[in-house]
Automatic annotation (TrEMBL):
Keywords: Cell membrane, Disulfide bond, Glycoprotein, Membrane, Signal-anchor, Transmembrane, Transmembrane helix. Homotrimer. The lineage of its organism: Eukaryota, Metazoa, Chordata, Craniata, Vertebrata. It is a single-pass type II membrane protein. Its main location: membrane. Expressed at the plasma membrane of B cells, it is the ligand of the CD27 receptor which is specifically expressed at the surface of T cells. The CD70-CD27 signaling pathway mediates antigen-specific T cell activation and expansion which in turn provides immune surveillance of B cells. One of its GO terms (biological process) is tumor necrosis factor-mediated signaling pathway. GO terms for cellular component: extracellular exosome; plasma membrane. Belongs to the tumor necrosis factor family. This is CD70 antigen. The chain crosses the membrane at residues 12-29.
Amino acid sequence: MPEEGWGCTTVSPYVFSVILFAVLAAFCFQQPPRLEGREVSREGTVERRHTRPRLDPRLCWQADPALGRSFRHGPALVNGQLRVVRDGFYRLHIQVTLANCSSVWTTVPPKATLIVGICSPDTHRISLLRLNFHQGCTVTSQRLTFLAFGDTLCTNLTLPLLPSQNADETFFGIQWV
């Protein structure tokens, strides 16, 4: 006796799995679109990946597609610092979490400070953000500001404090608006 149903044939789980794998593989291996002309990426976010002891208060940043942080036609990363390649207004954002810090168990030095500023060119040095940890482990902030071509942004953290290496806890970037 035939079964009653919708009258459609069903696809076996094996065939469905093969089709799903083929679609996902095609999606993952396709080439990213090429940008032609003067199109510019509107943002750049970097993460900190530096494990040596800090002798300099400046934090060095990295960006790489393997790290999930990269940009092609926007800001440039020069010696671990973010350099602006186009005049305009930018939304600057930063978050830094201290390594080996727990608000419950650790006392953060009262003068623990993160400073973001324009450090180059020398004629245009200015502090954009000065953030105090206030006995906490994380500071986060953002600001809308005008940046000029060639401005290099530096981030300084009070020595000897170390930032977390986790990219979800410590990051820095700008977005052209």
